[in-house]
Amino acid sequence: MRCLALLAVAVAATTATAHADSKRCIAAELTPTADLQIVVWLEDSQGNFIDTLFVTQQTGTYGLGNRPGRFDFNSGPMWPYGRRVDTFPVWSHRNGQSFASVLYQNDPNEDPGYCSTLAPSDPQYAACGENDLSHETEQSSNEAHFCHPLLPTQFDVMSCPSQSFTDKGRFSTSPQYNTGYPPRADVIPTQPDSPSVAMYKAINPFDAVSQPTPVGGMDTSIPWAVPTTLPDGDYVVWVETAAESDFNDTYNQTSQPSPQGIAWSAYGVPTRGQPSIVYSVPISISSAMPTVGETTTYAGYGDPIGADGNIRPPDATITTDTPASGASRLQLVADGSDMYRLRVAASPDDPSAVPNAPDQLAATDVTGSSVTITFAAPSVGTTNETVSGYDVRVLANTPMDDDNFMSGTEITTKVTPAMPGAQQSIPLSGLLPLTDYWVGVRAYNGCDDDGPLAVIHITTADRTSGDVDACFVATAAYGSIMANDVELLRHFRDTWLQTNVVGELGVEAYYTFGPAIAGIIGESDLLRATARTALAPIVEKIHALPR
User: How many alpha carbons lie under 13 Å from residue 326 in its C-beta half-sphere?
Assistant: First the structure.
């Protein structure tokens, strides 16, 4: 594809908002079972919601709880459809957020639950919008995360067997059906998508605290820097967990079957097992002294169909004696004579416990458009603790140091930091050929204390024959391959210019002369400013085009 690929690097982020002057920290410690969906949030002692500390990416970034299709759809590997409102019902009703429900573009019913209220014998049932797994080409765009639905016999496929196209949906226009689940934040709108899609990322506040699903059986620490505006006092940390196919005698494929009488019903399998399991730990936040709270038991469970945010008290319908199931989704951890499933530690910040600098920075696999950065993961202070995340930024044609690091382009793709000394890899793609780049990596701890900056200088290789995947002039003008207007121009090229003969000829000419022009522009701040001024009216007109 000729469009310059997005620069993709691995970075972890663990806080919704940076609070560099915060002097208090919270860390939730737990050991999850495999493939567990988790959300962590804080409330005051009166039950008032404070903030979301952590949510797994499938919900926070990829919109698992708010996407087209009925909630009780079957599931399968990377299944693309079905608003899983039963994933975190307690959190979604308590978090204070309100998002319009996402429906299929061709769904005539504004009520996202309408189809599930009809009996299979109802004449409207078979044609009901949210019952369908197959959608028109005119309403389906390229899918970069999920796969198309598969038959159970195909479940052993480790990745999407072929290119997938999905209906990204549209917003319901009826506020009474709003939800506390965000829409997905990973989609770049294209021509078949509804205008709603352009708003998905902008209104999703949880992408910043979304992380990959923790590795099953591994001790996991979820840190949070306490905002300076939050007073000392008594609080409660809540953890809600969800797992597909966590069956028992009460919740199983027989008691909660797949929808009946719908097309494509052979695809996927019913996976609605036991409902969300909730844990809680009271904790005192203090600027003067550390405190610790923990629990070995679950507080209750959420609504099996996600209809409300009430916590059902523990009862016999939830499995308590089977590892990795029900109340044991968080493993029982032994710390000496102490036992816990969830432990929360709150403490004043220790200014001496700052991360060390990433070590042994190196560049491998350097091409005209990509490079891989490797380094040894640092520790926190003199301990062997793992850092909480990395701030990674890139500057082109300008050496990077502490003074200009924050002016570099921030990279937000996430990865879980490795144990100290382990090698970490950061793949960068979409670079310009024969261009100098400075990549800076800085680690931070759970209180957002930054460690020293490590910088590596890279010069990309020459462009190989046929390698024309860059927006040369626009990138040189805006100084960053990830600038919003550069992405807009690439989208315009791919959606409008390369869909007709005249536009394609213009693109060919651009790739013939563009690199040479970009080289001149990139050398001069005055020429870069002039180029931005020249591109401004084009960008303005593109903004006005339907997308």
Answer: 19
